[in-house]
Write a structure and sequence with these properties.
Ribosomal Protein L30, Chain: A; globular; 59 residues; alpha+beta; three-stranded antiparallel β-sheet; single chain
């Protein structure tokens, strides 16, 4: 499995609780603060759910 760098680029204000919880579960604390994860199916599914709030790149 490869690595993925996830960065939040849009605010989670006025978003459903599930999307806020997904952002928190990804370990993202602030905007434009990158976080690195393994590219597991679970992580990729979480990224897909909040793809409109984050950008990601595979390493």
């Amino acid at each position: 499995m490869g690595k993925v760098i996830v960065t939040q680029v849009r605010s989670a204000i006025n978003r459903p609780k599930r999307q806020k919880a997904t952002i928190q579960a990804l370990g993202i604390k602030k905007l434009h603060n990158p976080v690195e994860h393994e590219a597991t199916p679970q992580i990729m599914g979480m990224i897909r759910k909040v793809s409109h709030l984050v950008k990601f790149e595979e390493v």
